[in-house]
């Protein structure tokens, strides 16, 4: 996903993320799979921050 991103821009973006890296598609997929599973069938809604700590509300 970031193969065509300018390396300097990617370094800047990564520097803004507290975990110091960008997320992987597999990490997002794991959250989606969990949300779609019976393990969370009682949940009626929530906000899940999968930004590596970058999101500011």
TrEMBL record:
Q: Which domain of life is it from?
A: Bacteria
Under Pfam families, the record lists: adh_short_C2
* InterPro entries listed in its UniProt record: NAD(P)-bd_dom_sf, SDR_fam
Protein name as catalogued: SDR family oxidoreductase
Source species of the chain: Paractinoplanes lichenicola
